[in-house]
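To the wet lab folks,

You asked to see what we're planning to order before we commit. Fair enough. Below is the target structure as tokens, and below that is the sequence we designed to fit it. If anything looks off to you, flag it before the synthesis order goes out.
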């Protein structure tokens, strides 16, 4: 009877030893699978931009590979569901080939406004990544990241046929005693039609130094 109990204890001990000996082998495999999963970061710049109706604005899309294997990326865009977004559309280029681990690649997105565009619209960029491990390693889990930018219709937006924007190349100067000081005025037609602009100059005699 004593011998039988000893044999049972020995059998239980051997089974337990076999189970514990397998545990260290399972953990590294799980870690290796996790390391093979695709991992990316997505940025779009600028994050907001003012675009005149009838024109297109350019955004730079950058995809960082933060994983341990090269990844291939598929990019797509989508406009918001707001009513103003019906006059906005977008296109995006694709990144050819794979992005190496620890590196990044860039693509270009263009947001185009119709002539009747108004207000603002959000555009969401989606990047779907799949890792490309060295055979015979199987691929890991894919990764998806999104980034959103805002485009706003500039001057002359909506149904305005005529519009003008004035700006100075230099907003202030220090007078050095010259007889004449030149200023450069930039006149931009922001409307939808050609126009003739008449400029009128008025002096502020209440300012210091004016007479």
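Sequence we intend to order:
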């Amino acid at each position: 009877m004593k011998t039988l109990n000893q044999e049972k204890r020995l059998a239980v001990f051997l089974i337990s030893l076999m189970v514990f000996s397998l545990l260290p082998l399972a953990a590294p495999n799980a870690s290796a699978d996790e390391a093979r999963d695709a991992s990316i970061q997505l940025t779009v710049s600028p994050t907001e931009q003012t675009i005149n109706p009838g024109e297109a604005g350019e955004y730079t899309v950058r995809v960082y590979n933060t994983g341990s294997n090269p990844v291939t990326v598929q990019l797509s865009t989508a406009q918001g569901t707001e009513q103003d977004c019906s006059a906005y559309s977008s296109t995006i280029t694709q990144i050819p080939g794979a992005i190496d681990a620890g590196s990044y690649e860039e693509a270009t997105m263009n947001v185009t406004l119709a002539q009747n565009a108004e207000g603002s619209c959000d555009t969401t960029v989606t990047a779907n990544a799949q890792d490309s491990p060295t055979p015979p390693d199987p691929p890991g889990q894919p990764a998806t990241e999104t980034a959103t930018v805002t485009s706003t219709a500039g001057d002359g937006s909506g149904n305005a046929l005529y519009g003008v924007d004035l700006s100075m190349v230099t907003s202030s100067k220090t007078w050095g005693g010259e007889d004449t000081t030149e200023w450069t005025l930039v006149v931009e037609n922001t409307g939808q039609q050609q126009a003739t602009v008449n400029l009128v100059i008025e002096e502020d005699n209440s300012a210091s130094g004016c007479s």
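Structural context that might help your review: The first helix runs from residue 2 to 36. Strands lie at 40-45, 48-51, 56-65, 71-79, 88-92, 104-113, 120-131, 143-153, 164-168, 185-189.

Thanks,
Computational group
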